[in-house]
Design goal:
Layout: H1 18-29, H2 34-55, E1 59-60, H3 72-75, E2 79-84, E3 91-92, E4 95-96, E5 101-109, H4 114-125, E6 130-131, E7 133-136, H5 139-144, E8 145-147, H6 155-175, E9 180-185, H7 194-202, H8 207-222, E10 230-235, H9 254-259, E11 265-269, E12 290-296, H10 306-316, E13 325-329, H11 344-362
Parallel strand pairs: 1-6, 5-8, 7-9, 9-10, 10-11, 11-12, 12-13
Antiparallel strand pairs: 2-5, 3-4
């Protein structure tokens, strides 16, 4: 049996607790060591897993509590990738992240990774619940990584090596017990607007070619995966301190995303007008593809009107059968350790809201 996506699901990241934030600062100052920091992380992950179970979620995550970034921490663990200090952070709407980046300075591969042990811990404490692992999509290495020309002069070779490294990563998580893996991807958002198309061309690429390259890389990474492993993708337009980067509906890349990726499910942002209409869902041809509608925002505390959410799900069901639809927040609550602008209790209220609405619809 496949595990997930569930009628009520979540993207993955959760607001870092005050204990975690304090412990990170203490580790940085040399007050505690790595082992002591991990003990604190373990205690806090235990606590938030129990909270997710109490709320009624069937898939639980570690909240990405051991990470500073949703993507860089994983990517830096790949062979051939190194983190470095950039001159400036990533520009969001009226705000920038702290300065950090990654560069590809060697041939890409996957041999060992600390997040394998992170997953094993989550699975041990998950009990009878599904332990869901989240990692950045292979496209994020192209989208956010600085490629040193001395290593990769041929982009086809680069995409091939990325796919093979991810194939090994996926198998490693599976061997560790993972049966529900999510790839997080902001790279697709570059296709959703004319501004994004101009950025692609300025980079020396053509939108149609790059879009197909993204799809091919993902499908090559997934080729031959175990039949009982669920792999989904979360497509995002940016999430930092309750703000965003990109706008535009799915239309320009809809056929590729909905009918060209060999995934089991798609987590899609639909929490505001920046995401466009449900009409691109007409490209969903497969009956075994689950569409998780991100109709509950993780950016702000106010709870959405349940009747309005139900109305929007009914609208989406005009394009995709109701039995293929699920509900979640549009993104995580803390794509970076800084987190969005709401409290932990408000976060739990949002997730409880997802569960209650889903139970009303599908039960």
């Amino acid at each position: 049996m496949k595990q997930g996506p569930y009628r009520a699901d979540q993207v993955g990241s959760l607001l870092r607790s005050e204990l975690i934030k304090k412990a990170r600062l203490q580790k940085e100052a040399g007050v505690i060591n790595t082992e002591q920091l991990r003990d604190i992380e373990n205690e806090e992950i235990n606590r938030i897993v129990k909270k997710q179970q109490e709320i009624g979620l069937k898939a639980v995550t570690d909240g990405e509590f051991r990470r500073a970034w949703w993507h860089f921490d994983f990517l830096e663990g790949l062979d051939g990738v190194e983190g470095y200090q950039t001159e400036s952070g990533i520009q969001f709407h009226n705000i920038k992240t702290k300065a950090h980046g990654i560069k590809v300075n060697g041939k890409l591969d996957f041999t060992n990774h600390p997040m394998i042990d992170d997953y094993r811990f989550l699975q041990r404490i998950a009990g009878g619940y599904t332990a869901k692992m989240t990692i950045p999509s292979p496209n994020m290495l192209f989208f956010r990584g600085k490629l040193e020309e001395s290593v990769y002069q041929d982009l086809d070779e680069f995409h091939h090596d990325v796919a093979q490294a991810y194939k090994k990563a996926i198998q490693a998580f599976y061997d560790a017990g993972c049966r529900y893996l999510q790839l997080d991807d902001t790279a697709w958002s570059v296709f959703f607007s004319e501004q994004g198309h101009e950025q692609i061309k300025a980079f020396g690429q053509e939108p149609d070619e790059l879009r197909q390259s993204f799809a091919d890389t993902i499908n090559q990474a997934l080729d031959g995966r175990p039949e009982d492993l669920t792999v989904t993708m979360h497509i995002c337009r940016g999430n930092f301190r309750s703000t965003w980067v990109a706008s535009g509906g799915y239309e320009a890349a809809a056929e590729t995303i909905f009918d060209g990726l060999n995934l089991d499910g798609l987590f899609l942002e639909f929490d505001d007008e920046r995401s466009g209409s449900f009409e691109p869902l007409r490209y969903v041809k497969r009956k075994d593809l689950q569409i998780v509608l991100g109709l509950i925002t993780s950016k702000f505390a106010e709870l959405e009107n349940p009747d309005e959410i139900k109305r929007r799900i009914e609208e989406a069901s005009h394009y995709v059968d109701l039995n293929q639809l699920c509900l979640s927040p549009q993104c995580g609550f803390a794509s970076t350790e800084e987190g969005n602008l709401l409290t932990e209790e408000e976060q739990w209220a949002k997730l409880r809201h997802v569960v209650e609405i889903a139970e009303d619809i599908w039960n």
